[in-house]
Amino acid sequence: MTPLIPEPVYDYEIALLVRAYKNALLSISAELSRLDLTAMSRANSRAALAEVAAILHGLNDESAAWVDRYIPKAATDGVARTIVSLGAASTLEDADKIVKFNRINREFVASAVADTQADLLAVTQNVDRRVKLAVRQATADSMRANLTRGINGNRTLNADILQRMKKTLGGAVDTGIIDAAGRRWKPEVYVNMVTRTKMASTQREAAVNEAVGRGAYYGVISRHNAIDKCRGYEGMIVKLTPDARGDYRYFGDLPRNEIFHPNCRHVITPIRDPKLLEQ
Ligand SMILES: [Zn+2]
Fold this sequence. Notes:
By secondary structure, the protein is α+β, with helices and mostly antiparallel strands. The chain has 2 domains: 11-214, no CATH class; 216-279, no CATH class. 60% of the residues lie in helices and 6% in strands. The strands form 2 sheets. It has a 4-stranded mixed sheet. Strand 1 and strand 2 form a beta hairpin. Helix 2 (42-85) packs antiparallel against helix 4 and helix 4 packs antiparallel against helix 6. The longest helix has 46 residues, at 103-148. The protein is elongated, with a radius of gyration of 25 Å. The model has no long low-confidence stretch (mean pLDDT 91). Residues 226, 230, 259, 264-266 line the site of zinc ion. Zinc ion is lined by residues 226, 230, 259, 264-266.
């Protein structure tokens, strides 16, 4: 039977980061809503953009610290699960004490940290670009409207123009990122998905690297009665390296739109001898 080792859950950690993004985006919205749209000048739009830049800078620092702390933690969890599943420790607590990243894992964790940093940085860069564009657009609209005010006897800004400026500024924060598959995500939903997926893949890959380093070349995919396409893979025995013997599929070749997809919670538990499990 499959050894029952608790599976890692990162809901709390991910919620911390998602909250940081939500708060930063709310602060940016608040900053933009304080702009006096009827009398915008280059000077006050510059001041607002400086505030926005400071908020995004703080967010980047916070998310870099998060990645530095939690991506290695996911790798540690993966290594600890491997240590327990291969019988070198009896509990995860005991395994945690002897976790040490082997050479493949040291390199792997460094690149997982860098990848995740880059993904999150893309989110703030996207917000930054959109907010700058929106503020410039609104400033130009405001200045042009003020220049032509009086031509038709209007003392105040045209309501349609004001409405359009509000929409442009509001949309700048709300419009998210478009992923490789062309799907559009709100920033905080995207951050949630990206970090959940990276934590899971880091855990999985680190577990496999540790297993292979210990001479265990097979694994079992966890089961929690999934209702999506993962269901067909639950309990499946896989190879952890394409060179392993036997008629099993290599985990790296499994279709990512079916198993280990974004937000997937399945893990691989390494084993030495698939024959024992099959009996
Ligand atoms: Zn899954």
